[in-house]
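New here. Your pick:
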Amino acid sequence: MSEIHNTNAIHQSVWPVRVYYEDTDAGGVVYYANYLRFCERARTERLRALGINQHDLRAEQGIVFVVSRVEADYLKSAELDDELLVLSTVTSVGAATMRFLQRVMRGDERLFEAVITIACVDWNRGRATRIPDTLRSLLESEV
């Protein structure tokens, strides 16, 4: 399941997820916070597919990407053993931020949707910093 599929027409990536027992709550449905975990993994893989390794960014340039804002809608519940897809699209790139639209789908059913803002942070100073030009070019090519 650790593969990413690109649909070049709209620069959307697709990350498959299967729901395991550990992802569910006492009612047998996916615990609400786990949708954000699924999205985090999909964003990381999207960046990796662009050649952006977050570990190397921190080690070599002293920068990290952190979530600064989430606007989420929980529409339907996923359940144990469901096969889901996380659709991720970069919708904008600013000086120090980028925004993703992410959807969790079960077939044609939209279960979860979020607009997630990611900030570029100087790891040593703990404050926002500009996205380096080389990264900005890669990210802007996705919008």
